[in-house]
Design goal:
The chain has 21 helices and six strands. It is mostly helical and about 475 residues long. It has two domains: about 180 residues, Alpha Horseshoe (Serine Threonine Protein Phosphatase 5, Tetratricopeptide repeat); about 170 residues, no CATH class. The strands form three sheets. A two-stranded antiparallel ribbon has the order 1-4. A hairpin with an 8-residue loop joins strand 2 and strand 3. Helix 3 packs parallel to helix 19 and helix 8 runs antiparallel to helix 9. The longest helix is centred in the N-terminal third of the chain and has 26 residues. The two termini are about 40 Å apart.
């Protein structure tokens, strides 16, 4: 029986929860013979993508904590803070994230192949078949976007050769030697997948599944981060459509405590790593359940903003240490740490890949970039967001009279609202300017770095395995 291997077969270092992947059948059965001989088999192989994603322990706190360290918002990993990673350093977190993203892409490709090869008459309708394809393609597009953002020159022009290693076939020894795509090609592959999902996926019902709205949100975020000609206007259309037409099942939590208490079941969360069937959630969210306690203070500027913010008492609190031998308590980011892995090993250690509040912040920035003279118009979405809350009741932002003050207010809102939840504060630090330079220079004034260090090196094993087919990212050799 043919078992599909991980996308990084030759690279070593598989998903930490899949150490026996090559010697026994994966638990979600990525085999065409087993999984896709019927409509229910097609549904099962799509479910298998989520199963693969759940077991990938670095695609949460480790990922977002690393990016916050790179941005100068959190001092957890010196190599990330100093951007000192190279191919030879072979950072464990970087290697794990690379392998785990490709394991999810491999699962998505197996699903796409299986669904496509099953005859149309086996499905209730062509629409049902396309919906399953859209779900798998949305997952693949999302993971490829993360790969481009982490390991590619997402900040380069279209003709840059430093895009992703794009895989649209289930990995086999015969098809592993794939050259890097250009940055423009990489973006188009991702947009094609997300657009197909927007056209054929169903509406949001739960953060446990991909949805049409998640595809739209990530498409809009891609355009905002990329910032090519016309991108901001297109992203604004997507955001406005989401704010106007999203189903009522997706909405802001008026009580902020409910967002974090409910985790992946919150109606504000568009997609989350669902860990509900895991025996011990903390195994899969080490940073949130452990690292945040012993690195509980953020860098000076964000820490000051956090303590001054009206949400502070709901997002921070006193919690016990995560070790059995350490009975100390401290003030930590309890919105994500909860009670820690000792007292709260089964708390809601969810990820927040995208949630409703971010739409307001994105809209404010997109309005500012497309119509910079309308300061009040661009500020309005931030105050609209703040006005939704009943717990806490928040004051509107005032005293913003210039474009520079507006952009500072928007950056501050990215940081305070979304701290440690996803990649948005990192990108905001590299994109939004303060005193004529991106905020990252203000946050890290004593560290020398270049834009080449805005991405990570492709892991050493992968470069070696490809026999010089793949070129390493410049400056990270």
């Amino acid at each position: 029986m043919k078992t599909y291997i991980l996308g990084l077969l030759l690279a070593g270092g598989l998903c930490t929860a899949c150490s026996d992947f090559l010697t026994e059948e994966p638990r979600h059965s990525l085999t065409m013979e087993n999984s896709v001989t019927s409509y229910s088999g097609a549904q099962n192989i799509v479910n298998g993508i989520y199963g693969e994603y759940e077991t990938c322990s670095s695609l949460g706190g480790y990922l977002y904590g690393s990016l916050h360290s790179m941005a100068g918002l959190w001092d957890y990993d010196d190599e990330m803070v100093n951007m000192g990673y190279t191919q030879s350093s072979d950072n464990y977190t970087i290697v794990n994230i690379w392998n785990q993203l490709y394991s999810c892409i491999n699962a998505a490709n197996a699903a796409i192949e299986g669904i496509s090869n099953l005859a149309d008459e086996e499905y209730p309708s062509v629409e049902a078949k396309n919906a399953l394809l859209a779900e798998a393609r949305c997952f693949r597009g999302y993971c490829n976007l993360e790969l481009l953002w982490l390991f590619g020159h997402w900040f380069d022009a279209a003709d840059s050769p430093y895009g992703i290693i794009y895989r649209d076939k289930t990995a086999e020894l015969a098809n592993l030697m794939v050259e890097r795509s250009t940055v423009g090609e990489s973006y188009q592959y991702i947009i094609d997948d997300l657009t197909f999902a927007e056209q054929h996926l169903g509406d949001y019902e739960s953060a446990r599944r991909m949805s049409r709205q998640f595809a739209q949100a990530m498409h809009a975020k891609l355009l905002l981060v990329r910032g090519w000609d016309g991108d901001y206007a297109e992203a604004l259309q997507l955001v406005n459509d989401l704010l106007t037409n999203a189903p009522s099942t997706f909405q802001m939590e008026t009580d902020l405590t409910q967002l974090y208490t409910n985790g992946w079941d919150s109606k504000e969360v568009l997609f989350s790593r669902y860990l509900g069937d895991m025996a011990t959630y903390t195994t899969y969210e080490f940073i949130y359940s452990y690292g945040l306690f012993y690195n509980n203070v953020f860098e000076d500027i964000p820490q000051e903003w956090l303590e001054e913010d009206e949400r502070y008492d709901l997002t921070f609190g006193t919690a016990r240490a995560p070790e059995t031998w350490d009975e100390s308590t401290d003030v930590v980011l309890t919105k994500l740490y909860h009670r820690g892995r000792y007292e709260g090993e089964n708390d809601m250690y969810a990820t927040y890949a995208f949630r409703y509040a971010e739409l307001y912040i994105m809209k404010a920035e997109l309005l500012a970039r497309t119509n910079p003279s309308d300061i009040a118009g661009a500020l309005k979405p931030l105050n609209d967001m703040r006005a939704v809350y009943t717990n806490p009741v928040m004051s509107p932002i005032t005293g913003v009279d210039t474009y520079d003050e507006l952009m500072d207010a928007i950056f501050k809102e990215y940081v305070v609202t979304l701290l440690m939840e996803n990649e948005s504060p990192w990108f905001a630090a590299t994109r939004i300017e303060h005193n004529g330079r991106p905020w990252i220079y203000t946050l890290k004034p004593d560290i020398n770095f270049s834009t080449n260090q805005y991405c990570w090196p492709i892991p050493d094993d992968e470069i070696k395995a490809h026999s010089n087919v793949i070129e390493q990212n410049p400056g990270l050799e």
